[in-house]
Design a protein that fits this description.
Blueprint: H1 2-17, E1 20-21, H2 25-42, H3 49-52, E2 53-55, H4 62-73, H5 79-114, H6 120-123, H7 126-131, E3 139-140, H8 147-175, E4 184-186, E5 195-199, H9 202-245
Parallel strand pairs: 1-3
Antiparallel strand pairs: 2-5, 4-5
Length: about 250
């Protein structure tokens, strides 16, 4: 639990203390935190997967054959793939954070250049910009005016749909059948068999997959809703309002 708290605190601190905000930012950081906690809890039943895989072998090389059957059944990494999907989800969130930080830096530099008597030579560096009084003020990104930023935002949201949608498919169609409770008939080239194996505590493992799938499905639905809302509100309806004003 100490490790999960250590990883969770920086995420929440970044979400609260950052002075640059945009539509749905708090929600994405909330999903990032919930995803991390769910991932930590879901990994617990899989911690002793090798021991939980049992076979009815009586030969002298039973342990060797059991491991051979284990490698045949779990032919793809489970927990490592879960962790990698979380890294990809984090990258999609941090991409927008990087763009927002760069946008804020550019806007402050433009304001500094318009200010009379500002020392551009000294304040034009990153240190000078961060030390300027404008850097301490909150900024809300207006997607009506920042069309390039909006496109990057839509790209990040689309990435989340693709990442979580793929991860959801892997959980349901690839990992869940591995622990469906049915007997595993094993026959490998090194151990012809046939042998029967099973995975102990399969209900706990299925429940962990269901919990991850629920969070991923929620992220997919929310991301699609935000994508459609941003498309309609900022591109379609926003352009119509601008043309009517002109």
């Amino acid at each position: 639990m100490a490790a999960i708290v250590t990883g969770l605190v920086p995420i929440l601190k970044t979400a609260v203390e950052a002075s640059t905000d945009y539509k749905g930012r708090t929600l994405w950081f909330g999903f990032l935190s919930i995803r991390l906690v769910t991932l930590y809890v879901a990994e617990m039943p899989w911690g002793k997967l090798d021991i939980d895989f049992q076979c009815n072998m009586t030969a002298e090389n039973s342990e060797y054959c059991r491991r051979s059957c284990f490698n045949q059944h779990f032919d793809v990494p489970v927990v490592m793939l879960w962790n990698f999907s979380y890294v990809l989800f984090s990258v999609s969130v941090l991409m927008m954070e990087l763009l927002a930080s760069q946008l804020r830096h550019s806007l402050i530099k433009q304001r500094m250049k318009r200010e009379p008597g500002s020392q551009l030579a000294g304040e034009d560096s990153l240190t000078g910009v961060k030390g300027h009084g404008l850097a301490k003020k909150d900024m809300m990104i207006d997607f009506h005016k920042q069309k390039t930023t909006l496109l990057v935002y839509l790209l990040c949201v689309g990435m989340r749909v693709g990442i979580e949608g793929t991860f959801l498919s892997v959980l349901i169609f690839w990992h869940l059948p591995k622990v469906n409770g049915a007997p595993i008939h094993c026959s490998t080239p090194l151990c012809p068999g046939p042998s029967q194996c099973l995975v102990r505590f399969d209900s706990e493992k299925r429940m962990s997959i269901y919990s991850l799938a629920t969070i991923s499905a929620t992220i997919v639905v929310t991301s699609i809703a935000f994508f459609l809302y941003s498309m309609c509100h900022y591109l379609i309806f926003g352009r119509s309002k601008l043309e009517s004003v002109v």
